[in-house]
Amino acid sequence: MAAFESVAPIIPVSDLEAALARYRSLGFTTRSYDGSEPYGFVDRDNVSLHLTESPGHDPLTTASMVYLYVSDADAVHTEWSGAEGRLSPPRDTPWGLREFAYVDPDGTLHRVGSPLR
């Protein structure tokens, strides 16, 4: 049986260059696709996300969500504290994670969590 090795969610954005700059400010490395389509790649450690520019993207009706497991949610929250968008405070959950939420200007919800220590 074949093994699944990784996943890269594809996130719609209204402005690819602005989104790539935002992810760079969040500590990701970024690059644009060299083809004719406005498409980009963002990576940080073992996490990869793909971005696709979608002219009809409306954050109120086409929201996306990703869950990012990290080693230290509080440290990432501190790093992201100046990011454009909405950032909730970290909290301990009943399911054993310390987590917070970040909603970017394109409406993508990034839930970020690490195991409680």
UniProtKB/TrEMBL annotation:
Any one Pfam family here would be: Glyoxalase
Tell me the ranges covered by the VOC domain, including all copies: 3-115
Give the record's keywords alphabetically.
Answer: Antibiotic resistance
Record keyword Plastid present = no
Where do transmembrane segments lie in this chain?
A: none
Question: Which InterPro entries does the protein's record reference?
Answer: Bleomycin-R, Glyas_Bleomycin-R_OHBP_Dase, Glyas_Fos-R_dOase_dom, VOC_core
In which domain of life is the source organism classified? Bacteria
Asked if the Swiss-Prot or TrEMBL record annotates the protein with the keyword Transferase, the reply is no
Tell me its family.
Answer: Belongs to the bleomycin resistance protein family.
| Official protein name in the record | Bleomycin resistance protein
Q: Organism source for this protein?
A: Paractinoplanes ovalisporus
